[in-house]
């Protein structure tokens, strides 16, 4: 995979990728054109669909009888008349334009520690940990594989896309299991820094407030969670606090929800800071049109989040990163707090 860099972002050179999707129950009785024009309209705009099919990039594989071989349909007329049945397969060859991700002056992802079992990195913001959704090669895992030449990497834990800091990868299934066991037994110690609105109380503040993990599943029940907090600094001029966050459980979005529950949401957290509820996100900017598939290429801007995984303590060692600039509060005279 080839990367390019411009305007502070890492780009993946567009590439072709074939999806093979077994037919879903809700597709039965619908034609391929019906499904593509509704559920995949963002991938195949109406003014581009005919061109895509004529180029042979869409295929319906259907077997009408078990005793007969499967038939493949690729032309416009067939795909507009033949419907999905149980066992049908939709093959879609797409020209993928992955969203760009931020880069630190085009430098490689910084490795904090490495041995035969682990690779610990300082994760930049705006990059997902592993392939997900629109991101495949522009994920920390794939970028790191590209930069180090390592063929196998296993994320030992997760960080949100916009969270920065210590991220542990294992080189083998045995070593990732060992780290996972430490996390599950809560012998692993995690320490985060956050910049929040308001004067956070001095001393140690703890909460066991249940959290609802960020998920697409419906009717999700809140789960037990525990986080301790300690104020590091307070800027009275801007009414902002730097808070050390010490979670002993690992629920998704736990720290962000606990800070909101305590009344001190992360300053720039669009999801959990009520003050930002009406603030529009920055829109994607069109960078041009792809000369291969004719679709627009967008620059997808990320949202910064003032949450940083500062330290991770395992049996293998204590791994720590530098304090981010946003956490270095200063008073009006330039004196650090």
TrEMBL record:
GO terms for biological process: enzyme-directed rRNA pseudouridine synthesis. Residues 118-261 form the Pseudouridine synthase RsuA/RluA-like domain. InterPro entries: PsdUridine_synth_cat_dom_sf (IPR020103), PsdUridine_synth_RluA-like_CS (IPR006224), PsdUridine_synth_RsuA/RluA (IPR006145), RluA_PseudoU_synthase (IPR050188). The lineage of its organism: Eukaryota, Fungi, Dikarya, Ascomycota, Saccharomycotina. PROSITE patterns: PSI_RLU. GO terms for molecular function: pseudouridine synthase activity; RNA binding. This is YALI0B01276p. It comes from Yarrowia lipolytica (strain CLIB 122 / E 150) (Yeast). Gene3D superfamilies: Pseudouridine synthase. Pfam families: PseudoU_synth_2.
